[in-house]
Amino acid sequence: xxxxxxxxxxxxxxxxxxxxxxxxxxxxxxxxxxxxxxxxxxxxxxxxxxxxxxxxxxxxxxxxxxxxxxxxxxxxxxxxxxxxxxxxxxxxxxxxxxxxxxxxxxxxxxxxxxxxxxxxxxxxxxxxxxxxxxxxxxxxxxxxxxxxxxxxxxxxxxxxxxxxxxxxxxxxxxxxxxxxxxxxxxxxxxxxxxxxxxxxxxxxxxxxxxxxxxxxxxxxxxxxxxxxxxxxxxxxxxxxxxxxxxxxxxxxxxxxxxxx
Length: 260
Fold this sequence. Notes:
Layout: H1 2-9, H2 15-50, H3 73-83, H4 85-105, E1 111-121, E2 129-139, H5 147-201, H6 236-254
Antiparallel strand pairs: 1-2
Helix pairs in contact: 3-5, 4-5
């Protein structure tokens, strides 16, 4: 804001430029207020989920930054498929559906059973006679009104649904793993850019900006731009704009034709 006002005072900007900066500053403050409100709501929801007092505040303990290399993507996907609860549940449901197909197919096979009975018969407890019976049963369903076929078709359809659900859950797990890997690469790139910015701000970068100097003719000594008062330099943005204006004015004067 102060830079825009200095440029306006130097005659290099207009009131519209200053007004545009004020509008942008108001928008930034509005976003800051919205972010603070969302932070408060998020803290309240977190405390409610953890069963803590709503006014409690917790400080996030960030782990130390390490330059470890993550495992390959195939290993991460295999670990996710083996440990994610939704994938494990889908696999169990598919296995149960396949067992239902086996049970439905058993209705078409002959069934054999053996049974035995041993008993005592009599009017009184002292006068009883024993008897035993042994039998075998063979059952073969030749026609059941297509009920067995219907149960088998239902079991196969349930197995297909379970297989599709298992594939969907596995695909979702793979997408989450690859998305997390991509976000990790993005975060590392942002971290590197941030480190370079901090190094430049601290003056440790080898590409330090040089002070802006006025273009001079051959044989003249260049000096930093000043505002006419001794010992006071102009701001860098004002110097840059003033040099641009002077270059355009010099070019215009070079092409001007003087009448004879």
